[in-house]
Amino acid sequence: MGLFDKKGAGVKPASIPSGPDDPGASPDVAEDEIRIPAALFDGLVCGTLLVLGLWFVVGALRLPTSNAAFDPGTFPMITGSLLILLSAIQIGLTVSSRGARGDVVFQRPVWLGIGMVLIVAFPFAVEAFGYYIVAVIWVPIFGVVAGIRRPLSLVVTTAVVLLLAKGVFEMLLGTPLP
Amino acid sequence: MIENFIQALGLVFTIKVLLALVSGVLVGYFVGAMPGLTSSIGMALLIPFTFGMEPIPAIVMMVTIYMAADYSAGIPAILVNAPGQPAAAVTAFDGFPMSQRGESGKALNLSIMASGAGALISGLLLVLSAQLMASAALAFGPAEYFALAVVGLSLIGVLSAGSTLKAVIGLMFGLVVVTIGIDPIRGSERFVVDYLLIDGIPFLPALIGLFALSEVFVMLETANQKIMPIKHTPSASASFRALAPYKATVVRSSLIGYFVGVVPGAGASIASLISYGVAKNLSPTKDTFGTGNPEGIVASESANNAAVSGALAPLLSLGIPGSASAAVLIGGLTIQGLQPGPLLFTNNPEIPYSIFVALFVGLPIMVVVGLFGARLWVQITRIPRPIIATIVASVSMLGSYAAANHTFEMMVTAIFGVIGYVLRRCDIHPAPIVLALVLGDMLEANLRRAMITANDNFLTVLSQPITAVLIALAVLVLVSPMLGRRAAK
């Protein structure tokens, strides 16, 4: 088994189908999935948390100190140290029981990755271009990524989101959207 | 007391006040069901509308918004794992798995019945013990608040569905994250890499990311899955019967909710967490909690609705808000020229008694709207998953923006959504992180205050009577699952 085994590649490439009549239009088609050994995935996540804990501990050491038992850095130092310790224990356990948890399977990995990028990009785009311009473009694109294939569904979903934004958030609740 | 009640009944049963009451319930339902919009935000947004109103309809409308919003926050938590308010996050633990099994109707009906029962029991407690309880809550100093936070954190053992080690890692992650921002005692900046982080990580957007957006990512993966057919939604009478096996849980959770709600600053989220933890601990089927056990919904919803009346006790009798929503209500009372506190019962007894009557009159309206609405709301689960994912993602972003009218909140939601998803795939669930985000500040700030008061002597802090009892309770909560497992072997 490779590090990132692909299953289903060659069955049907994950592509945006042309329309609802296209057999590939249904999101029910077989799509790629990525399998990562759980030991490796857990190790990567806990390793990241360990580094994060280290960053907090180093940052806490640089905070002002006094004669008091609890300084501004004491609490983050304790919790950061515990995060380092527990993450290290988890990495140790993961290595010693390698393969026990099987694989972590990511289905529709390409769509998932694009979806994450779209979500993270959304606030920056709203800040740069304003909510409505971004929403008119972003919502249908995210809809396609989520698996909506019928153009009418995309239009209705976009309209629902815009109506909620204008009617509920702006008009009823007085939230000024950028 | 009886005379005041009779007078209040006459004042509430007028067209104007009843209209305000029904409007309050409907607005509360709406505000609570929108992720990101809390009851306090809804009440604050509607304060300008109360300027021209008479005091009683204005106050009744605000109180019913508060009550209904606390219930309806459980609706999106059950249907799409997107809690409308922080306290409803606990309802999602079992509500969403039930919804995934096609039992969304049963889950929604149970949640409204449990909410109604919680509101009824706590309403009675409020009437009988408002002044007494509020005085007792005043005995809480930093040491007691620190101990209360420790009790909350000790629930980690019962809240962890899988590996306890991973749950504690999640807890520590939350506890380090919560230290970002201004130090609560000295005012020094801690880990502020950008000025936007000066106030720390905003809780509500982080919560929306951890629950709603991480669920959106799961939906992106599972767009191919068939929609689970909806099972029969029970009738109102069947819902009453469905609640019957959980009578003890309802009473216990309502008591927990009320008493935790009385303590200023503790609030519905802590009430729900403690109540859920206790219910799980005492249940013979504790392993099924977190996988769709109806008792989990009952425990959470009874407690968070009971906390509403609890928060009103110190507000009415001492002028101290027990929650953010109660603080907004104080603003509403002040605008009407009323001063909450001991003199309110003497100078304007019609106000507190009208609030008591409004709680009891608004309750059946809330339950009826909830029971009839359940059949409509479960239809949401029939909408194809890709459409739900798109709408939930969009509304989550809008809701987090509305929390502070700033795109920074959206960024926090997006980042915590990705973090929440990655951690979930590593079997580190959002519950322990939320526990830390709720209690982290309370734990650190009160421990440090208590240490200053006790001249840096930790034993002095622990030797306060209420603190000692609460710490002993925390130890009991922490070790009881282990003892239970050992006894089972």
Automatic annotation (TrEMBL), chain A:
Tree of life domain: Bacteria
Spans through the membrane: 39-61, 73-93, 105-125, 131-148, 155-173
Domain DUF1468: 45-178
UniProt feature, compositional bias: Low complexity: 17-28
Residue numbers spanned by region Disordered: 1-28
Keywords: Membrane, Transmembrane, Transmembrane helix
Protein name in UniProt: Tripartite tricarboxylate transporter TctB family protein
Species of provenance: Pseudotabrizicola algicola
Automatic annotation (TrEMBL), chain B:
Record field: transmembrane: 6-31, 43-69, 108-130, 165-182, 202-220, 255-279, 351-374, 386-404, 466-484
Residue ranges occupied by any DUF112 domain in the UniProt entry: 18-435
Keyword flag Transport: no
Keywords: Membrane, Transmembrane, Transmembrane helix
Coiled-coil spans in chain: none
PANTHER family: TRICARBOXYLIC TRANSPORT PROTEIN
Name the UniProt record assigns to this protein: DUF112 domain-containing protein
Organism per entry: Pseudotabrizicola algicola
